[in-house]
Amino acid sequence: MSDAEQPERGVFILGGEGSHRGFWGGQNKTRAWGTVLIIVVGMVFTPSVGWPAIAVAVAAVAVLIVLTSGTHNGSILERRRRQRRFRAARQTHADEYIPYDADRAALLTTALAQTRKSKDKADRDSRVAWARELAAMRANPDGCDGMGWLQSGRGVPGIAWHGPAGEEPYLSVAFSVSGQLRGMESPENVVLGAEAFGAFLASKAAPSSLLRVVQPVTRVLPADTALQEFWVLNNIDPQAPEWATASYEEVLLESSRGAMVQRHYVVGRWPLNSRFVQQARKYGPGRDGWRKLMASEIESFRRGLLDARNGWAEPLTARGTAAVIRHMQNPSRPLDLVRDVEPTNVGERSPGGEYSAHVVDGIDPETGQPVQWWHRTAAIRAEHLTVAQRRPLWLLDLLVGRELDVIRTVTFHIELVPAVEARHAARRDLVSDMATDLSETANGRIPLDEGSVRVAAAQRRRADLAEGSGHHGTNWVGYITITAESRDQLATASRELAELCANEVGIQKLEWLDSYQPAASGNTWPIGRGIRPHTPTFGARVMRALAGGGDKEAIA
Q: Mean pLDDT: which of 28-37, 43-52, 271-280 is highest?
C-alpha cells in the first residue's frame, strides 16, 4: 500500500452496519419469517381452495410489508407494540415505583385483609389506593431490577450482582476515572489516548479473559463553584475591600453561567458463567472464592485504565455506586453524597403515567423541599450513524454543552469479541453482502446505495481484524439520557438534542426508548446494563465448550 492509500492516523470510519447478517442476510427478520409462514399456509390451502388462496397470500404479504416497513418513526408494527406495552404497564401500575418499605408493606397487607369484606364506599376507595401502592412498591426501580451486592462493605470496591429476568447473571464494578484529557492537550495526545484505550480493550478481549463488557460513562452537569467559594472563604484577606470580594464573586458567576462539567466513570461486566465459577474455585470455596477472584480482576482492570492514560482510576464502593444512581434519578442530590445512602436503597419514587419520560419525585437535601425531574433516554446504534471519517473527539459537541445546556449522561456499552470469532463473522458478512450486491446489479440493474455501504463496512471490518493486527471485535450500543425539570423543558431538550446529533455529531436518528423509559434510564447508570450480547456462531460455541474452564489442577 502506498503512502497516499494509507489511512490518516487517528481517523476512523464508523457506521454502515449494525448487526451480523445471519440466515436472512440483512433483511427484516419479522418480515422474512412472516413471508415464509404465509407461503407455507398458502401452499397448504391452494390445492383445496385454488386461486383465492394464492390471492389472499399475495395480499397478506403486501400487508406484512406495509406493517414492517421502517420509517423515521419506526414501523407500524413497532408503534403498536410500544402502545400495547405502555397500556399494560399502566393497567398493572408497573410504570410506577415506590421504594420498598417492609413496615409499610405489612401495614397495607393487613389493612387490605381487614377491609376485604367491607362494602362501605370509603373502604372500597381506600382498598383501591392501598392495592395500587402495594403493586408499585418494589425493592429496585425498573432500571436495575434483579440487582444485589456480592460485596458492599465500607472502604472496599462495590461488586454488584445482577440477575435480570431473561438474561445471563453477571457482576459489575464501577470505577471513577479522571479522563484522558486534562486542560489543553495537543492533537497528538488525543490520538495517543484513543490508541491507548483501544489497546486496553484489546488486552481484555482475549478468549481467556473473564471480562466481557466495558461501559464508559460521562455525566454532564452544570458547573459547581462550591470548591472555589470555599477557597475564597479561607484564603481571601479579611482586610480586602468589599469591591474585591464582589469582583471575585462576579467572576465565578460569569465563568459558571452556561458552563457544563463532566464526570467520568468506566464500568466492567463479568458474566457469571461456568468459566467464572471454575476459575473462582481456585481462589477459595463458595462466595469467598468469587470475591478473591474479583479482587484480582478489579486490580487488573484498574491497571488497564491507568495504562489507558487516565490520571487516576478508583473503584467505587457500593454506597458510592448507589449514590451515583440516586443522583442520576434526582440531580438535586450531590453526586458524591453518601451519608444517607444504603447500597440496597438505589431508587427514587416515580409516579409513572408518562409514555415518553421517566418522572422522578425526590427531595433536595440542601433545602428539604420536594423536587421533580423528567428523564428521557435514546439509543445510538451503528446503523443510524452517517458513514464518515471520524476523529477521537467526534462526540465533543455532545459532551461540552456548547449548544445543549441540559443535564445528560452519555454512555457506550462495548462487548469484547475475541478476534477469531469476530474475524469469522466479518468474513461471513462480507460474502453475504457481496452476493447480495452482485444479485442486485444483475441484468443491468442499478444497485442500491445501502448495499454498497454494507459491503464497504464489511471490508473495513475484515481489514481491521487481519491476522497480526492485534485488534479484536466489538459489539456496541450507545445511550444518552437527558434530564429537565418539567415536561416542556424535556420536550425542548429532546428536539435540540436530535438536531445537534443530526447536524454536528453525524447521528442520523436517535431511537427514543418510549413506552418503557423508567427501565431505559438504567442503560446509562454505571451498572453495565443495556446491551444484548452477540450470538456466537455454532462453531464458536463448540470451541467454547471444548475449551471448558481449564485444568482444575492448574494454579491459574
A: 271-280
Give the per-residue SS3 of 92-115.
HCCCCEEECCHHHHHHHHHHHHHC
Q: How far is CA 186 from the centre of its chain?
A: 30
Closest CA to 539 of 374, 401, 425: 425
Query: Which of 8-22, 180-194, 500-514 comes out lowest in average pLDDT?
Result: 8-22
Spatial separation of the C-alpha atoms in residues 77 and 273, rounded to whole Å = 35
Query: For residue 6, what pLDDT band results from cuts at 50, 70 and 90?
Result: very low
- Which residue did the predictor score with more confidence, 216 or 334? 216
- Distance from chain centroid for Cα 47: 51
Among residues 552, 478, 174, 491, the alpha carbon closest in space to that of 355 is found at: 491
Residue closest to 180 by CA, chosen among 313, 304, 309? 309
- Confidence bin at 40 (pLDDT 50/70/90): confident
Q: Which grid cell sits at 44? A: 397448504
The continuous run of DSSP H or E covering 289 comes out as helix 286-307
Whole-prediction pTM: 0.84
- 467 to each of 205, 422, 423, how far by Cα in Å? 15, 11, 9
Packing angle of the helix pair 419-441, 449-464 (nearest 10 deg) = 150
For 18, 344, 450, the CA distances from 148, given in Å and listed in that order, are: 32, 7, 44
